[in-house]
Amino acid sequence: MSAPPAYKRVLLKVSGEALMGTRDYGLDTETVGAIAADIASVVVLEVQVCLVIGGGNIFRGVAGAASGMDRSQADYMGMLATVMNALAMQSALEKRGVPTRVQSAIPMSSVCEPYIRRRAERHMEKGRVVIFAAGTGNPFFTTDTAAALRAAEMKCDALLKGTQVDGVYSADPRRDPAAKRYDELTYLEVLSRDLGVMDAAAISLSRENRLPIIVFNIHAPGAFAAVMRGEGRFTRIVEPS
After folding, report:
1. pLDDT in tens, 148-159
2. Most-buried pick from 18, 31, 84, 146 (CB within 10 A)?
3. Is the pLDDT at 1 greater than 60, yes or no?
């Protein structure tokens, strides 16, 4: 018999790039569907799930600023990209019978709800997946920071970061075969070694709220549910005991 889930309420952070599949940009419907199926398998375990999805597959504010665009304007464009991804994931989840709500930090009532903390908590208590879109609603903050903020606000038991590899490494293992993989790290080790798994603001916010961060491969079938049971390969970032 499978182990019961280790957490009751979690936030899953997925990068926009994770939705591209083998494409160079945009959305790959099969990849979005596969991630949605994994999320559905966790909802079945009666785990309350919320999501933050990046927008890098459509537009990156930092890249826009680097090309000469005003940084604030570029960041707002990136926030709108996250709303597009959130709506795509909502559609994929609801096709699998998972009730879902999208809440945006930038109000756009025609397509989704505004972000209201108590309403989001109520949705999750009723078994709905809540997707938080448009980051924090402010420029100069990444979706990683938005994920840590929302996880803290929702009183989540853990923040899960779905990446392209099965944990945190000393360097990119796809480029450096000698990269060392870590099973467990402290927040300060991540910051002092500049491991880059999430930006410093997200790590610091998680540390202040004693929010464990779990990094795993979002593309490994069933990995999300396995991590919920404490199985599979992943890296835990926690406060030292």
Report:
1. 999 999 999 999
2. 146
3. no
Kindly list the structural domains of the chain, giving each domain's residue range(s) and its CATH number in brackets, ordered by start.
9-238 (3.40.1160.10)
**CB contact set of 69 (below 8 Å; sequence gap of 6+):** none
Q: Would you say 233 and 166 are in contact if contact means Cβ atoms under 8 Å apart?
A: yes
- Secondary structure (DSSP) of 180-212: PEESEEEHHHHHHTT--SS-HHHHHHHHHTT--
Total-model pTM: 0.96
**Residue 145: burial class (beta carbons within 10 Å; 0-12, 13-18, 19+):** buried
C-alpha 153/C-alpha 161 separation (Å) is 17
Which pLDDT belongs to residue 169?
A: 96
> What pLDDT shows up at residue 32?
98
CA–CA gap between residue 79 and residue 186 (Å, rounded):
30
Q: CA–CA separation, 45 vs 51, rounded Å? A: 17
Separation between Cα atoms, residue 54 and residue 83, nearest integer Å: 9
CA-CA distance, 139 to 54, in Å (whole number)?
14
Contact 173, 227 (CB under 8 A): no
Instruction: Give 66's strand partners.
Output: none
Scanning the chain, the segments in alpha helix (DSSP H) are: 29-43, 61-66, 71-95, 117-125, 143-153, 187-192, 200-208, 223-228
Q: Which residues contact 101 (CB under 8 A, 6 or more apart)?
A: 90, 112, 113, 120, 123, 128, 129, 130, 131
* Rounded average pLDDT over 190-214: 96
74 in Cβ contact with 61 (< 8 Å): yes
Q: Residue 109 — very low, low, confident or very high, per pLDDT cuts 50/70/90?
A: very high
